[in-house]
Amino acid sequence: xxxxxxxxxxxxxxxxxxxxxxxxxxxxxxxxxxxxxxxxxxxxxxxxxxxxxxxxxxxxxxxxxxxxxxxxxxxxxxxxxxxxxxxxxxxxxxxxxxxxxxxxxxxxxxxxxxxxxxxxxxxxxxxxxxxxxxxxxxxxxxxxxxxxxxxxxxxxxxxxxxxxxxxxxxxxxxxxxxxxxxxxxxxxxxxxxxxxxxxxxxxxxxxxxxxxxxxxxxxxxxxxxxxxxxxxxxxxxxxxxxxxxxxxxxxxxxxxxxxxxxxxxxxxxxxxxxxxxxxxxxxxxxxxxxxxxxxxxxxxxxxxxxxxxxxxxxxxxxxxxxxxxxxxxxxxxxxxxxxxxxxxxxxxxxxxxxxxxxxxxxxxxxxxxxxxxxxxxxxxxxxxxxxxxxxxxxxxxxxxxxxxxxxxxxxxx
Length: 413
What we know:
The structure is a single chain. 69% of the residues lie in helices and 1% in strands. It is mainly alpha-helical. The chain has a domain at 110-260. Strands 1-2 form a two-stranded antiparallel sheet. It is a multi-pass membrane protein. Residues 185-344 form the O-antigen ligase-related domain. It is found in: Membrane.
């Protein structure tokens, strides 16, 4: 098996690995360096035709303007303003990078190599993850009795193996790797996903599979059954050795809707510990209700924080939170009600973008990713405030431009 990678494939591997391993600042400067090199040294041109650009840039302008005003009047700090601003730029920069790689007029980077690059990145990350988890398990100083102690030892896992597992299952013919190696990769990626017991990871995979069009192809159905069998077998093995973890995961999954509710009128210390996400949303809603009408509509801009008092120290070293687990509520605080509406319209634009893609499988993948963003932002930070989810815009670009130029209708919009 020989993989003929160009330097651009290795740059893609570097960017994807960096998105999972390094800070937002590192990712921003790395992407900025590459984009500036492309423009200043290679004489390239960047396109700002990110899907839903009018919604994305409206939010950017609102966040900047109101955030700067609040920094001037000492409502927001420069440090927090810059942190929000950096996160917000990442989806745009990931899109720009993906657009450069996938547009044949730019670098002539073959689509099949792009998919293989993602798979190889996942192979490296999953191997690193698995080896690190084994070392942590063997050298652990305390017993792993629940999901919290598990994630303290093993971390929360990566998103790239989820995408790669999807690619190996549904783009198998286009990925020029041996059958045995693909089977090994399916096993490796499945283990990498399983050992972290992440509900979000399972949700992402299920949504992507649902939109894959698998029911039209018997081979795809067989692959899904095979992968599902592996997952069930893995859960069975884990239950034999770590029954408490499996039971804890089951309980948390079955109580997911309760965990994200915030309708309680009073919260005891026990309630807050047990349902921290719900308490975050409850506190954010109280903050929203006590804000001025202007702030309710347009938010507090970049740098807005939520003061949580002594309970903030459960998840932060500071008395406030800059990001909430629920991305919609972070958006509400930063951009107001109008911001939440614009964000939803932006994601719907991402979904609608799929109709301009000639390849059916790529179009299905784009639809699935858009729904993943729309759904999981309620449970995690979302693409505007998370490096890992911002990389979804990289996948949008990579799988949107592989089959020629976009229709003129989209360009006009």
